[in-house]
Amino acid sequence: MLDALKKAFSGNDEHRTAPAGKKNDISREKSAVLYEKAKQFFPGGVNSPVRAFKSVYGTPLFIERGDGCFLWDADGNQFIDFCCSWGPLILGHNHPKIRERVTKTLEKGLSFGAPTALENELAELILKNNKYLEKIRFVSSGTEAVMSAIRLARGYTGRDKIIKFEGCYHGHSDSLLVKAGSGLVTFGETSSAGVPKAFAAETIVLPLDNRDAVESAFSQFSGQIAAIIIEGIPANNGLLIQEPAYVQFLRDITKQHGALLIFDEVITGFRLGFEGAAAHYGIQPDIITYGKIIGGGMPVGAYGASAELMACISPDGAVYQAGTLSGNPVAMAAGIAQLTELKGSGFYKALNAKASEFVEAIRRYIAAKNYKVKLFHVGSIFWFAFTDQEHIRTASAIDHGSMEHYKVFHRELLNRGIYLGPSGYEVGFISAAHSKIELEKAKRAIFESLDELFRHNKPAA
Ligand SMILES: *Cc1c(COP(=O)(O)O)cnc(C)c1O
């Protein structure tokens, strides 16, 4: 998504005529017609920038339907989908239990702007099965969840500044569209036009995996930092797996300075396990944000914390936050149906084991061929990086030039019926709907695509 942000302003379509147009390229005729039409309606022809395929070859695919692990586009091409709507679809597309529950609910009306029993049901399902939260508030997107969590942290501590990390994405609210300035500890610079400098001045952007930077920030801005926010596992700009000891360090230093620790679990929540990254590390953050999986494919976000912290939220407390469609019954129904499946015993064990097996087989192939590519992986999240580094923990360790490889890889995979996110900075997701048969097919397609890629880019001797 960070990549999307950068690309969003480039606005040129020249690369589309670049080395694409291979003989075996899939047909995109209908998608191309729809895209031309969409460009008359929407900036860049899309309602979210990364969908415009600016970082890969060809016109964006317009999707007609999904079922299980499959997607079909407007031209009738079928794909095994590893994007899964950017993470929400942990049960795959069009899951019968979710569809049934949603259908039953929508027959009673779509929205009331008044409390419903469904909100209680989803909240109870989450809170009874998550020891890291006492109270929760539903909103309608991840962006909204994080924006509200930041306001809560500022309201509770009475401090204005926040620390975020280069390489983490937290949605598009003003305080968080900020990138690192020059120097180790500086105020951020806005990463979007339209964000006032004064907002960026309240956000300190630091490199990940660097304790000195965090210590310096706390000494330089003593008594002014409300919170540190970090993704459960940074997965929006590659998969930047952090060492547990570093995350524990963030827990300790925030506590020591009276600041809060916010885990943005919009991706990792209900993905790494029902209790997300908090349980993955065994670390109690002060505030947790959710999105993506929590809504079963419908627009839901949430933030939660201790009862004491949540008492600051209106109408109990002085931190204002509201939403016309918050707790929407149809969205709640989808969330309830999805999370009920996830809570079932052994769900994550089976999913993560399946993902590990898939990843290990690909790693063996890469090693045997001595290809310069790494497959990073945690739980059911994976990321291909065209590098020979054993670990990538910071945004600056990513080789931007290697994204040219990803473009070729992406096209070769599409031609073989595999759909990955249209940018090399995006991670892939494995769902419960990916059966062994489809994963076997996907592996073969990945092997062939790597062979094709490295046929022209010989591995370093
Ligand atoms: C996707 C994402 C967001 C933003 O959520 P939206 O629903 O797109 O607004 C925030 N934080 C993280 C970690 C995300 O992955």
TrEMBL record:
<comment type="similarity">
    <text>Belongs to the class-III pyridoxal-phosphate-dependent aminotransferase family. HemL subfamily.</text>
</comment>
<keyword id="KW-0627">Porphyrin biosynthesis</keyword>
<dbReference type="GO" id="GO:0030170">
    <property type="term" value="F:pyridoxal phosphate binding"/>
</dbReference>
<feature type="modified residue" description="N6-(pyridoxal phosphate)lysine">
    <location>
        <position position="292"/>
    </location>
</feature>
<comment type="pathway">
    <text>Porphyrin-containing compound metabolism; protoporphyrin-IX biosynthesis; 5-aminolevulinate from L-glutamyl-tRNA(Glu): step 2/2.</text>
</comment>
<dbReference type="GO" id="GO:0005737">
    <property type="term" value="C:cytoplasm"/>
</dbReference>
<dbReference type="InterPro" id="IPR015424">
    <property type="entry name" value="PyrdxlP-dep_Trfase"/>
</dbReference>
<keyword id="KW-0413">Isomerase</keyword>
<keyword id="KW-0663">Pyridoxal phosphate</keyword>
<dbReference type="InterPro" id="IPR015422">
    <property type="entry name" value="PyrdxlP-dep_Trfase_small"/>
</dbReference>
<dbReference type="InterPro" id="IPR004639">
    <property type="entry name" value="4pyrrol_synth_GluAld_NH2Trfase"/>
</dbReference>
<dbReference type="GO" id="GO:0008483">
    <property type="term" value="F:transaminase activity"/>
</dbReference>
<dbReference type="GO" id="GO:0006782">
    <property type="term" value="P:protoporphyrinogen IX biosynthetic process"/>
</dbReference>
<dbReference type="GO" id="GO:0042286">
    <property type="term" value="F:glutamate-1-semialdehyde 2,1-aminomutase activity"/>
</dbReference>
<comment type="subunit">
    <text>Homodimer.</text>
</comment>
<dbReference type="InterPro" id="IPR005814">
    <property type="entry name" value="Aminotrans_3"/>
</dbReference>
<protein>
    <recommendedName>
        <fullName>Glutamate-1-semialdehyde 2,1-aminomutase</fullName>
        <ecNumber>5.4.3.8</ecNumber>
    </recommendedName>
</protein>
<dbReference type="InterPro" id="IPR049704">
    <property type="entry name" value="Aminotrans_3_PPA_site"/>
</dbReference>
<dbReference type="Pfam" id="PF00202">
    <property type="entry name" value="Aminotran_3"/>
</dbReference>
<dbReference type="InterPro" id="IPR015421">
    <property type="entry name" value="PyrdxlP-dep_Trfase_major"/>
</dbReference>
<keyword id="KW-0963">Cytoplasm</keyword>
